């Protein structure tokens, strides 16, 4: 079942470990895979840390944008959830990040704080703010809002297990015990790792299928949905959809530009067989640019509406 040529590679070891951890209810594969640590969680604030590792690096050796987006989204939600019943479902409503473009080298630290709830709303929409540092240097600050929702029909939610307890550091996966979805994750991971080793590029880009196609002033990127990117209720995790938008927006402008801010409105869950991002440059100046990105699911519903700001590289 396992590709023996890749079995001992540390990335495949991490994939198998994440599958074992994911058998504890309350979390999801991609969160267990990136391996963020819930270091300090209080009633109104939280500190998440993301240790560096080969499974998280992009081709330049920085923390991959997907790992950054996943842990930032989780940090903002944890800043709110820490004051609620631990199994509470929070759906991302909006997320805004201002980025310094400092290198994301080494461990990331995501410090978030709850800013309370929207007054006068029919539902409970919580707000939080965050700062992200890499090796002590500020790489991002931002805010997010999250709506408290009941679980989907037939879904029982559990608390995220690793908030109150430290997950095991190592584990062993019995191939004979694997479910169909777990086999699919391992197969996808082996293909992604094999591609990165023989064709170049980084593991996460291949694993998530982040291959934007750029045309003049625009870009297009289709990503396949599946359990490797799902959240606790089976929808595409919010950090993954944000990554999809950011990567496509960057492709619309090309390597000569840096993204400095992103503002995302979450419209509907990431469902369907595929999610498609379409980016269009709506301003292209000498020093700054603005890109509009829409994410659509294959079931015809819009998932995200995103506006990003960019500056020309020095």
Automatic annotation (TrEMBL):
InterPro entries the record matches: HotDog_dom_sf
Protein name as catalogued: Acyl-coenzyme A thioesterase PaaI-like protein
């Amino acid at each position: 079942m396992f590709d023996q040529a890749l079995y001992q590679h540390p990335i495949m070891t991490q994939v198998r470990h994440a599958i074992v951890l994911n058998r504890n209810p309350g979390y999801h594969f991609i969160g267990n895979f990136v391996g963020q640590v819930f270091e300090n969680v209080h009633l109104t604030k939280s500190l998440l840390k993301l240790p560096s590792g080969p499974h998280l690096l992009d081709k330049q050796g920085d923390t991959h944008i997907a790992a950054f987006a996943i842990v930032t989204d989780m940090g903002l939600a944890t800043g709110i959830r820490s004051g609620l019943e631990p199994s509470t479902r929070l759906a991302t409503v909006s997320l805004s990040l201002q980025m310094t473009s400092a290198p994301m080298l080494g461990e990331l630290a995501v410090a978030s704080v709850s800013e309370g709830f929207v007054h006068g709303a029919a539902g409970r929409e919580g707000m939080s703010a965050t700062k992200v540092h890499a090796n002590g240097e500020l790489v991002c600050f931002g805010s997010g809002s999250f709506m408290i929702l009941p679980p989907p029909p037939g879904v029982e939610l559990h608390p995220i297990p690793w908030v109150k307890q430290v997950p095991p550091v190592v584990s062993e996966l019995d191939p004979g015990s694997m479910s169909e979805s777990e086999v699919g994750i391992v197969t996808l991971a082996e293909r992604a790792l094999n591609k990165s080793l023989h064709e170049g590029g980084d593991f996460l880009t291949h694993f998530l299928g982040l291959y934007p196609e750029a045309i003049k002033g625009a870009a297009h990127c289709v990503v396949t949905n599946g359990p490797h990117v799902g959240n606790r209720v089976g929808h595409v995790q919010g950090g993954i959809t944000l990554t999809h938008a950011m990567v496509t927006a960057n492709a619309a402008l090309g390597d000569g530009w840096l993204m400095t801010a992103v503002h995302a409105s979450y419209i509907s869950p990431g469902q369907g067989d595929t999610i498609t991002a379409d980016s269009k440059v709506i301003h292209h100046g000498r020093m700054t640019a603005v890109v509009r990105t829409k994410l659509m699911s294959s079931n015809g519903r819009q998932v995200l509406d995103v506006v990003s700001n960019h500056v020309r590289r020095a």
